[in-house]
Amino acid sequence: MTNEVIKLAVDYAKDNNIRHIVIASITGNSVPALVESFDGEVICVTHVNGYKVPGENEFPADLSQELTSKGVKFLTTTHVLSGAERGISSVFKGMYPVEIIAQTLRMLGAGTKVGVECAIMALDAGLVPFNTKILSLGGTGRGLDTAIVVTPGHAQKVFSTRIHKILIKPEL
Q: Which residues of the chain have pLDDT under 50?
């Protein structure tokens, strides 16, 4: 499904003059195909360091260097829809507001949640322009299954984020 998502996203971007695509990636397997077919800005959002193993990043360093040399921008930072709040809820139990936003987005599929989250993170990092439609690609575990057209809002104004269109997502 990854290749289908990339093709739909790139075709939509070309037809609608969208210059920025955010792609979530754990291993980097999906990123080269996007880079080869899209001539705009590619922003790759990885898992945070320590997500799986404390102090380590899952994204291969050699691939990161190769893709950076091709113009890909990388963002590795705390996930805006979990982060510290997940640390609090794991200790004190319960559900907190940001986690409720994440769970609500998951009603449309994990890839939709990931796409929105990564778009917001990229905006907060200054990697995509403010008040501009972008494409954001996400998935559920392995590979891509979702592409959304979104105007992200900054995390401090998360509800200003607009999902304009869902190009593709898996049936739930």
A: none
Q: Token pair of 128, please?
A: 């995509």
Residue extents of the structural domains in the chain? 2-168
Q: Which residue has the tokens 């809820």?
A: 89
Distance CA 137, CA 146 (A): 6
Model pTM score: 0.93
Contact partners, residue 156, CB within 8 Å, separation at least 6: none
Separation of alpha carbons 17 and 88, rounded Å: 41
* Dist. CA 61–CA 63, nearest whole Å: 5
The domain made up of 2-168 has a fold known as Pyruvate Kinase; Chain: A, domain 1 (3.40.1380)
Q: How many angstroms separate the CA atoms of 2 and 12, rounded? A: 15
Q: So what's the pLDDT on residue 156?
A: 95
pLDDT of residue 92: 85
Q: Which of 162, 105, 102 is nearest to 130 (CA)?
A: 162
**Widest CA span in the chain:** 48
